[in-house]
Design a protein that fits this description.
The structure holds two protein chains of two kinds. Chain A starts with 8 loop residues before the first strand and ends with a helix. Chain A contains twelve helices and 23 strands. By secondary structure, chain A is of the alpha/beta class. Helix content of chain A is about 25%, strand content about 20%. Chain B has one domain. Chain B has a five-stranded antiparallel β-sheet. Chain B is globular and about 35 Å long. Chain B starts with a strand and ends with a strand. Classes of the chains: A alpha/beta, B alpha+beta. Strand 15 of chain A pairs antiparallel with strand 6 of chain B.
Chain lengths: ~500, ~90
Amino acid sequence: MLSSRMPFQFETGAPPPEMLFGYVSVRSQGGKSAFSVKKLPKSAKAFRAKASDRQQAAKNLSSAGLTVVSESQLGYAVTGPPGAFEELSGGKVITVEQLMRAESGRERYVTHVDIVGDKQPTACGHGQIKSKTMRLEGVLLERPRMLQGVFPSPIAPTVEQFHLRVPDDVAVGMAASAAHRAGRFGDGVNVTMVDSGQYPHPFFAAHRYDVRPTITVVPGTSPTQDPVGHGTGESANIFAVAPGASLQAIRASNNAGALVSAIGGFLAAKQGAPAIITNSWGGDGPFPPPGPPDQFDIVWALEILDAIDNGIVVVFSAGNGSFTIEPQVPGVIGAGGAYITETFDLRASNYASGYQSPWFANRTVPDACGLVGLLPRAQYIMLPIPPGCLIDVGQSQPTPNDPNDDGTAPNDGWALFSGTSAAAPQLAGVAALILGARPGLTPAQVGQAMTATATDVRTGRCNPRFNNPATVGHDQATGHGLVNASAAVQFAIDNF
Amino acid sequence: MEPDYVEAILEWSAGGPAPETRAWFVQRGFRTMPMRVGLLISADRATFERVFGVELRDADPPVELTVPLGLTAAVASIVIPKPRQFH
């Protein structure tokens, strides 16, 4: 039931959209207006309009400034600015907020448009026709409608094993809810994500997230496909923390899903001069390494440093047991893993890498953590992906190391997974909240706000390859601990 | 090396950067992106194999490619890096 303590409807005084959609009924040949009917008749035939009346009505609509989108024997679907609807109706177009059950079953206020004024009908969105000489009976403004029956579903399936859902559980785990209540959503902050691609999953549209058209860097690949599902799914972590952020996905995978142009993708991301670049990938090498970084690593690291020098916040995942240059680069925010249990206990994720950098003084990987599952497969966060993609199929089946599957179907567009690939976009979301509250902060200040306020993780160990324990205070398993988004934002407001 | 699309990092020597180097690769079907101390060159695997005279299908990166004659004054090295993986 909708909450009885909240008003069903109220006005905010906000201006209506620049373009509105509506429906206009043409005078019925049966002589009875569709707007006068109290009970739905068995047939609509009596409400059909004469061809001559429809032609005249079309002229009336055009004169008022409306454009016909489509037509039937009963009326016209039209679009136009609020002024055109006011011209037609003689009323005034306003916005009202109505409480309704919206996407993912959540109750929230949804903006409606209404026509008000002397002699205007009381039903929301209904307006009369100003001139009796027009062959029109009345006008209806479109009411917001929620996605239903779309595929894949924008609503995650229910599975038995303990897991987190996006956006709400991740927002709670990252302590972003307080920031959201304070109106901090990271509005308009550009987060660029270099990954496998971005499939237009209805989850993103249902939540009205701002996803820009994908840029591809591998010739012959589609900007609307993601053969792996990695980029699509992990990007939901950004919006869970920063629902107002603007996502620019850069597809660096080939048609088989292999990450063949990671560096090209990163360079393309830099060219766009975003506020934040988040990267959920990296290489691997022996640990401890046999020597200093090779020439390739140095040249590549210079590119990452250059991005930071240009004021871009750069986040890299720490790795899931891998050892690689990217999260070690000074100035990068290395994202590791912390795990919240069903009883809200906090421990280090044994899936995530954690070590003292052998290459750079005073650098520990990770700097701080996001939410990451546990070995063997870190099936922890229910994320939206292209139906039937590699992750959708893979996570729904057992493996030699894991007899359990994730409880989802192999082609339902949802899967349980995480890794430090989830932590990086979560921290990128926190960075977006911070920069939304304090535009212009340096990458170092953003990083300081996160690490100074992180929740210390004191139990558990990181990936067995490194086997470092989480201890009181800063440690090599979790860095400064699990990032507290709201505290980080407040730190930035108070100190910078 | 399974991928059909390859990227490699070209590092300038003391004689670089040289604009004609970029043009040299573009003329041969490569895409280039400027880097802080070099160029990122990328193309399909067949183009790399043809221009550098190597067989890459069974190669195990990192692969250091021989700098083509005529470019050695400005180019110190060209390396196909280890592949990056999703985390």
